[in-house]
């Protein structure tokens, strides 16, 4: 944890997803030298605006101490840009995280094949089964599976990798300890025994609409190749694809073809426009890397049992019953909808609300909006049929 306090001070003053963290190391031997230079040196560097210099001045070094204490309590590792074990593939991008928070053991992502699997939260049974199957088979032959821990495609690929007793990395857009998608809490815990849950955000950082596009650049940077399963035309998965190609125009992109349906339009267009290579089996992905990473003979693709898929599916048509449990009894977890025409304030409030009730005070903490504005916006979102009011001045998704 080289110069940890100084890097934490920097993130508290300047924020996240900035190229300036890496640029500091191009001008100075280390972050401590930059810190000790003070305002004169910060201005001479030419990296910071007047507002940012004011923030650097106002942020005390001991602002880092609370974060260090919390991470120690939760047994999180913190890896800085200056640490030897900071992933080279992550350092190579323009805006690597200054600090990477890790729960579990971060696998070697520089010397083994890593494949990111991304797709919609509102996955069909086809998408859920495909992502689980790819996650399982890739992990079974030693590939590290990387995804974002969200509902739908993400969690299906993680669970497939775990079922294969393989290694997977979950990249979050919030603090690792933040109660994000409570229904996936056990999965995240299981991941820490076979891989890692990581984030660039310190403990207690809530999930919001702005964090997830930033999170996507970490998924793409850690991945040698990216597999897209079931993505609409304006899917966040396509942001990850764009991020991957900006980081490395030669990054291998794969996609699974779907039916002529809007939910698969983004995926199908990736293939049609030759941005992504069509895959039908995990061996298509392994073959694209010339089998450098796989020494054993590949096994036939394993297909999961339908009852396994049905129990992790978020959306999609299931059989009438699963081991005696009728599908109408299965909980369908509400998720954020894509392609909404929301104002900036409406988007902030909408993405601050989750499947579980969130109090107005929590929304205010997440969005930094005044209470009168939040009350006005929640009413608008209710009228649009996007959220509902529950007891105790709380709101949840519909």
Give a description of the structure.
The protein folds into three domains: 4-86, no CATH class; 114-312, 3-Layer(aba) Sandwich (Rossmann fold), CATH 3.40.50.450; 344-397, Arc Repressor Mutant, subunit A, CATH 1.10.10.10. It has 398 residues and is α/β, with parallel strands linked by helices. It has helices spanning 4-14, 20-27, 31-45, 50-58, 63-74, 88-91, 125-140, 153-163, 185-194, 211-222, 236-247, 265-272, 282-288, 306-312, 344-352, 360-367, 371-383; strands at residues 77-80, 99-104, 114-119, 144-147, 168-171, 196-199, 225-229, 252-256, 277-278, 321-322, 325-326, 358-359, 387-390, 394-397. The chain has a nine-stranded mixed β-sheet, sandwiched between helices. The two termini are 43 Å apart. Helix 11 links the parallel strand 7 and strand 8.
Using brief descriptors, characterize the structure shown.
398 residues, alpha/beta, Rossmann fold, Arc Repressor Mutant, subunit A, 3 domains, 3-stranded antiparallel beta sheet, 17 helices, 43% helix, globular
Number of helices: 17
Architecture of the largest domain in CATH?
3-Layer(aba) Sandwich
CATH topology of the largest domain: Rossmann fold
Poorly predicted residue ranges? 314-332
Taken together, the total number of domains comes to: 3
Indicate the overall shape.
Answer: globular
From the N-terminal CA to the C-terminal CA, the straight-line distance is 43 Å
Rg measurement, Å: 22 Å
Supply the helix-strand structural class: alpha/beta
Mean pLDDT: 86
Strand order of the largest sheet: 1-2-6-5-4-3-7-8-9
Helix content: 40-55%
* Strand content bin: 5-15%
Biggest sheet features: 9 strands, mixed
How many strand segments?
14
């Amino acid at each position: 944890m080289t110069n940890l306090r100084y890097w934490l001070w920097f993130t508290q003053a300047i924020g996240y997803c900035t190229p300036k963290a890496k640029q500091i190391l191009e001008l100075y031997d280390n972050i401590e030298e930059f810190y000790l230079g003070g305002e004169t040196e910060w201005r001479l560097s030419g990296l910071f605006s007047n507002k940012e210099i004011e923030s650097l001045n106002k942020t005390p070094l001991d602002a880092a101490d609370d974060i260090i204490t919390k991470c120690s309590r939760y047994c999180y590792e913190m890896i800085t840009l200056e640490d030897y074990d900071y992933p080279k593939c992550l350092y190579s991008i323009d805006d690597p995280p200054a600090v990477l928070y890790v729960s579990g053991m971060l696998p070697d992502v520089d010397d083994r094949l890593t494949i990111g699997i991304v797709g919609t939260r509102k996955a069909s049974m086809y998408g859920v089964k495909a992502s689980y199957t790819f996650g399982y088979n890739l992990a079974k032959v030693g590939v590290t599976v990387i995804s974002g821990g969200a509902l739908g495609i993400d969690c299906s690929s993680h669970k497939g990798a775990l079922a294969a007793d393989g290694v997977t990395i979950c990249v979050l857009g919030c603090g690792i300890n933040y109660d994000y998608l409570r229904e996936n809490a056990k999965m995240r815990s299981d991941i820490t025994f076979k891989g890692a849950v990581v984030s660039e955000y310190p403990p207690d950082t809530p999930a919001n609409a702005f964090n997830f596009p930033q999170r996507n650049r970490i998924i793409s940077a850690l991945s040698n190749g990216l597999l897209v399963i079931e993505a609409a035309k304006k899917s966040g998965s396509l942001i990850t694809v764009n991020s991957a190609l900006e980081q490395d125009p030669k990054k291998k992109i794969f996609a699974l073809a779907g039916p002529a349906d809007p939910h698969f339009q983004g995926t199908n267009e990736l293939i049609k426009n030759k941005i992504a290579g069509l895959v039908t089996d995990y061996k298509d992905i392994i073959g694209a890397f010339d089998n450098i990473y796989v020494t054993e003979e590949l096994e036939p693709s394993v297909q999961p049992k339908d009852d396994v898929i049905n129990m992790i599916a978020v959306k999609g048509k299931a059989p009438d019953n699963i081991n005696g449990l009728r599908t109408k009894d299965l909980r369908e977890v509400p998720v954020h909808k894509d392609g909404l025409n929301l104002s900036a304030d409406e988007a902030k409030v909408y993405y601050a609300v989750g499947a579980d009730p969130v109090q107005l005070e929590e929304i205010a903490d997440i969005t930094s909006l005044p209470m009168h504005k939040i009350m006005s916006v929640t009413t608008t979102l209710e009228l649009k049929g996007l959220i509902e009011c529950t007891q105790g001045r709380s709101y949840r998704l519909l």
